[in-house]
Design brief:
alpha+beta, Gyrase A, domain 2, Alpha-Beta Plaits, Elongation Factor Tu (Ef-tu), domain 3, 3 domains, 8 helices, 34% strand
C-alpha cells in the first residue's frame, strides 16, 4: 500500500485515513460538509498525490499524443493544457486526463490513480520512435488548492503572478523557497490550482499554503469532500461514469473529442456511435429532500430504466443528488423514482452540472 509523503502530517492534523486506489489517503478531517462548504465559499487544500503524473517527451511526442488522445493537442501553446480522453479501439474510455504542453517536445499528463499502471503500459506501447515516457509520480507531490479564495491565497504564499494564469494553463513559481508548477484547474467546479512540487519540498509548501490561507478560511480537505464536489459539478469519475465499455458519446463528452483532427485510436468507433445514436446518456438527478442515492441504485422513469453511477448528499443544494445513465429519450425535468434500499424515492432529472459557480 502506498502512502503520500505527508501521511504523518495528515494523521497529526486529524485526518481519517483509508485506502483508495492502492493508497492510504485522508478521507476527511472531521466533517465532510464543513470541507465542502469551505471549498464553495472560501478554500480547501487537498493532497492528491495519488494522481498519476507522466512526462511524454521527444521529437515524436506530439505525434504520439495525437494518436492516443481524443482532443487536439496540436492546438496547445506552451503552458496551455486541455481535458482529453484516451480510448481503446472500440471507442471505450481507457482514461480521462489532462495534458499540458511544457514545450514543443515536452508534455505533462495527469492521469487517474487507479489507471496509472494501465495508462503507462498503454501509452508506452503506442509511442512512436523518438518519443519517451517518464513516470514522475513517485518523485513528486501534487496538491489541489480549490475555492474562490485560491488565487489570493497563492499570491499571499509568494506567487502574485498566479492571478494572471488563465484557466487550463500552468506557470512555474516558488513557494517557501521551493520550485513548483501551478496549473489553474481542479476537480471541484471552483476556481483553483493543482500544484506539483518535489517530494522533499512538500511539507514546507503544505505548511506555507495553510499559513497563507488562514486569513482566507483555508482548511485541509479529504477525498470524501472532493467526491461530493465533483458530483455536484457533474464531473465524471473513472470506474463510475467512465470505463472501457463506455464511449464519449454516452458520457456526453464529445466536446473534448475532435473527430476532424485526423486518425486517433477509437475514432471510427466513436463516429459510428455518434451517427447511429447512443443507447444511453449521462444525466443528473435531484432528489426530493435529503434521501441519498448511491451507485448501483435503479432509476425508474416513463421512458425506461437507468442506473445511478454516483450519488451523494449535496450540502450546496441541500438534497440528495446523483449522476445516472438513462435511456436517450430521458429529458431534463422528467420525474423519476430511484430505488433506494428497496423503496422507490422521487426525484427529477437535471442537466449537468447540477452546480455551477457561474449560476449562483
Amino acid at each position: 500500500m502506498k502512502t503520500p509523503v505527508l501521511h504523518q502530517i495528515h494523521e497529526r492534523s486529524g485526518g481519517r485515513i483509508a485506502e483508495y486506489a492502492g493508497w492510504m489517503l485522508p478521507i476527511d478531517y472531521g466533517s465532510v460538509i464543513r470541507e465542502v462548504n469551505a471549498v464553495r465559499t472560501k478554500a480547501g487544500l487537498f493532497d492528491v498525490s495519488h494522481m498519476g503524473r507522466f512526462d511524454v517527451w521527444g521529437e515524436a511526442a506530439l505525434a504520439s499524443l495525437q494518436e492516443l488522445l481524443t482532443n487536439d493537442a496540436a492546438r496547445l501553446a506552451d503552458g496551455a493544457g486541455q481535458y482529453t480522453l484516451m480510448c481503446n479501439h472500440d471507442g471505450g474510455v481507457k482514461d480521462d486526463l489532462i495534458v499540458y504542453r511544457r514545450s514543443a517536445d515536452l508534455y505533462f499528463l495527469v492521469v487517474n490513480a487507479a489507471n496509472l499502471d494501465k495508462d503507462k503500459a498503454w501509452i508506452s506501447g503506442h509511442l512512436a520512435a523518438g518519443a519517451r515516457l517518464t513516470d514522475c509520480t513517485s518523485d513528486t507531490t501534487l496538491f489541489a488548492l480549490q475555492g474562490p479564495e485560491s488565487v489570493r491565497i497563492l499570491g499571499h504564499a509568494g506567487m502574485p503572478e498566479a492571478e494572471q494564469v488563465r484557466r487550463f494553463h500552468l506557470t512555474e513559481g516558488r513557494i517557501a523557497g521551493a520550485d513548483i508548477i501551478a496549473a489553474r484547474t481542479g476537480y471541484t467546479g471552483e476556481d483553483g490550482f493543482e500544484i506539483t512540487c518535489r517530494n522533499q519540498d512538500a511539507e514546507r509548501i503544505w505548511a506555507s499554503l495553510l499559513s497563507a490561507g488562514e486569513p482566507y478560511g483555508l482548511i485541509p480537505c479529504g477525498l470524501a469532500a472532493r467526491d461530493v464536489l465533483r458530483t455536484e459539478a457533474g464531473l465524471p469519475l473513472y470506474g463510475h461514469e467512465l470505463d472501457e465499455q463506455t464511449t464519449p458519446v454516452e458520457a456526453s463528452l464529445m466536446r473534448w473529442v475532435k473527430l476532424d483532427k485526423g486518425r486517433f485510436i477509437g475514432r471510427d468507433a466513436i463516429a459510428a456511435v455518434l451517427q447511429r445514436g447512443p443507447e444511453r446518456k449521462l444525466i443528473g438527478i435531484e432528489m426530493e429532500g435529503r434521501v441519498v442515492p448511491r451507485a448501483g441504485d435503479k432509476v425508474e422513469s416513463a421512458v425506461g430504466e437507468g442506473r445511478v453511477t454516483s450519488g451523494t448528499f449535496s450540502p450546496t443544494l441541500g438534497r440528495g443528488i446523483a449522476l445516472a445513465y438513462m435511456p436517450p429519450a430521458a429529458e431534463e425535468g422528467d420525474l423519476v423514482k430511484v430505488v433506494i434500499h428497496g423503496k422507490p424515492r422521487p426525484g427529477r432529472l437535471r442537466k449537468l452540472p447540477l452546480y455551477s459557480r457561474k449560476a449562483v
